[in-house]
Write a structure and sequence with these properties.
Elements: H1 2-34, H2 47-63, H3 77-90, H4 92-95, H5 104-107, H6 125-134, H7 150-161, H8 168-175, H9 179-187
Helix pairs in contact: 3-7, 6-7
Length: 190
């Protein structure tokens, strides 16, 4: 009798768990197909979604940094200059630079691209390499691993390591862009 009672109790527990899973799955599918959540890039994500996406991204990247080793020679001025030119060719349209106004594309992105030139930013070479090579899903950050060599990606990371607090003049010298706009601003007394 005691064994039968226990078995019935266990079956009820399992059926309750199964019912909760089915109801949860049905609710999730209903939410997905309802169109209730606004995926517009012009509307910022709510705090819960933003937290979930950023936490998932941070943990995912951190879990995959172990096998990445920074090669020697990235302090070489030529490597940094090459990285600056790669930035000008591939990144400035979204990330901008010192002395430049945000592009129309950058203004329409959600989430907004990080300010890589913020003086308080602490670049981490392995993390930059990972972001640049593989990109980040559900952001506008593409992966450049199919179009650029690892050496080029490291050069770009070497440039970005120098980016925090970079002046508009240094930015222009290292990327080759922005010089005409910077000169105009200086002559106008801005």
């Amino acid at each position: 009798m005691l064994l039968q009672s226990r078995t019935e109790s266990n079956v009820k527990i399992l059926l309750t768990i199964l019912a909760c899973i089915i109801v949860g799955a049905a609710g999730a599918i209903g939410f997905i197909y309802s169109g209730f959540y606004d995926v517009s890039a012009l509307e910022p994500d709510n705090a819960i979604v933003r937290w979930a996406l950023h936490t998932t991204s941070d943990r995912s990247v951190d879990a995959r940094l172990g096998g990445i080793s920074v090669p020697p020679g990235l302090d070489n001025p030529q490597a940094i200059l090459s990285g600056g030119h790669l930035f000008a060719e591939n990144c400035v349209v979204c990330h901008g630079g010192p002395g430049l106004q945000p592009t129309n594309i950058a203004q329409g992105l959600n989430p907004q691209p990080p300010n890589l030139f913020r003086a308080t930013r602490k670049p981490w070479m392995e993390e930059m390499f990972r972001f640049i090579k593989y990109g980040v899903k559900m952001t506008a950050m593409p992966g450049f691993g199919k179009t650029h060599t690892d050496d080029q990606i490291w050069q770009l990371a070497a440039f970005l390591r120098r980016a925090p607090g970079m002046s508009p003049e240094d930015f222009s010298a290292q990327t080759g862009i922005g010089a005409p706009k910077l000169a105009e601003a200086k002559s106008a007394g801005r």
